[in-house]
Amino acid sequence: MSLAADLETAVFDRVPQRAVSIVDAHAHVGPYSEFFIPQCEPADLVRVMDRCGVDRAVLSSHLAIQLDARSGNEATAAAVAAHPDQLAGYLVVNPWQNPAEELARWGDDPRFVGVKLHPDLHAYPLTGSRYAPVWEFAERSGCLVLTHTWTGSPFDDPKHLGMVADRHPEVVLLAGHAGALPEGFDQAIEVAAAHPRVLLEICGSYHSGATITRMVRALGASKVVFGSDFPFIDLRYSLGRLIFADLDTEDRIAVLGGNASRLFAWRGRPPADDRPTG
Question: Which residues lie in coiled coils (predicted)?
Answer without folding.
Answer: none
